Amino acid sequence: MNIAFIAHDNKKELMEAFCIAYKFILKDHTLYATSGTGSMISEATGLGVICLEYGRLGEEQIAARVAYNEMDLVIFFMDPN
Predict the structure, then answer these.
(1) Which of 11, 41, 62, 64 counts the most CB atoms within 10 A of its CB?
(2) pTM higher than the cut 0.90
(3) How far apart are CA 27 and CA 32, in angstroms?
(4) Contact by Cβ (8 Å): 7, 44
């Protein structure tokens, strides 16, 4: 399964905790993330993450992959502010 991760700056710590908690489930899947989020996930868990561009451009790349049916799940930790 292809899983994409996006986390706004104020939510990166929560995303890190989420990935640590579910590391043993996530290891069986192909992970994608925006650059900053992907680096943080990889360092915290040791999991391989395919990093796309940083910020808004990375979000657009993930959206394009969703549009082409290449992503099975997107996990987005959004800061409403």
Answers:
(1) 41
(2) yes
(3) 12
(4) no
